[in-house]
Amino acid sequence: MKHSSAGLNDLPDEILMIILKKLSNIQVLYSLICVNKRLHAIVHDPIFTNCLTLMNYVSVDSIDPLSDRILDQFCLQILPAIHHNIKWLNLESSSMKRILLPTNYPNLYGLGLYDIEIETALSFFSDESCLTSIDKNQILEFVIKHTRYGKVNLWKDINSRILAHIFTTFSNLQYLNF
């Protein structure tokens, strides 16, 4: 019996999409964008670009930022190319300014912030923050998880201040997970 091998480019688009959907969309975008015209077109599909989680889950309670090399490629090449497809972004606090400031996200309706310190959460809603590049009226869903209180002792007062900022910043908010 003669052996034959099929390469990635030999697979039909439908089979390739099934395989790629099993992988992390961040890894698919980072690894396959600009490889060739066919893969470039496939990874621009909304399946891979409408919801991005730009962080690494180490465990249920631990989140790490993406490496600088990967984050640089996303901020300089990938996000500007797919910004119009992105509907939801999950970000960890140390990289949120790098991701939100340089690119406009016209279809963004959901935002998740993870592993964020209280001080960062409070400053996030100031006029000088990275929210200036987002149309605040288009955010319908907002999530803040894994909040760290650090040295803050009056956490109930801080929570109410953050919630007040959230409700005044996102006037069309329909869902909040805090």
TrEMBL record:
<dbReference type="Pfam" id="PF00646">
    <property type="entry name" value="F-box"/>
</dbReference>
<dbReference type="InterPro" id="IPR036047">
    <property type="entry name" value="F-box-like_dom_sf"/>
</dbReference>
<protein>
    <recommendedName>
        <fullName>F-box domain-containing protein</fullName>
    </recommendedName>
</protein>
<feature type="domain" description="F-box">
    <location>
        <begin position="5"/>
        <end position="51"/>
    </location>
</feature>
<dbReference type="InterPro" id="IPR032675">
    <property type="entry name" value="LRR_dom_sf"/>
</dbReference>
<dbReference type="InterPro" id="IPR001810">
    <property type="entry name" value="F-box_dom"/>
</dbReference>
